[in-house]
Design goal:
By secondary structure, the protein is an alpha/beta fold. It has 2 helices and 4 strands, in the order βαββαβ. The longest helix is centred in the first third of the chain and has 12 residues. The radius of gyration is 12 Å and the shape is globular. The two termini are 19 Å apart.
C-alpha cells in the first residue's frame, strides 16, 4: 500500500512534474515501478528516484503503486 512508503526529506517536490504525472495517471497511463527497501518497522522507503511518482499517486487518490523490492 502506498501509505507504507516513506522517503527522506530532501529536495522540494516539483509541483508541475507531480501534476503532469497525475494527468498521465488520470488518462489511464502507467508509471515506471519505484524501487523500495523494507524497513525494520515493516514500512518501506524509496531507494533512488520515485518521490514525484509517489506524490502523484497520492494526489490521484491511488492506494497502490507498482514497485520492486530491493534486497
Amino acid at each position: 500500500p502506498i501509505d507504507a512508503i516513506r522517503f527522506k526529506c530532501g529536495k522540494r517536490l516539483d509541483t508541475k512534474k507531480v501534476q503532469k504525472i497525475v494527468r498521465h495517471l488520470e488518462s489511464g497511463g502507467a508509471t515506471i515501478p519505484i524501487v523500495v527497501k523494507q524497513n525494520k518497522d515493516g514500512g518501506f522507503h524509496i531507494v533512488g528516484d520515485g518521490r514525484h511518482r509517489v506524490e502523484a499517486h497520492r494526489k490521484a487518490n491511488r492506494t497502490r503503486i507498482l514497485c520492486r523490492i530491493a534486497a
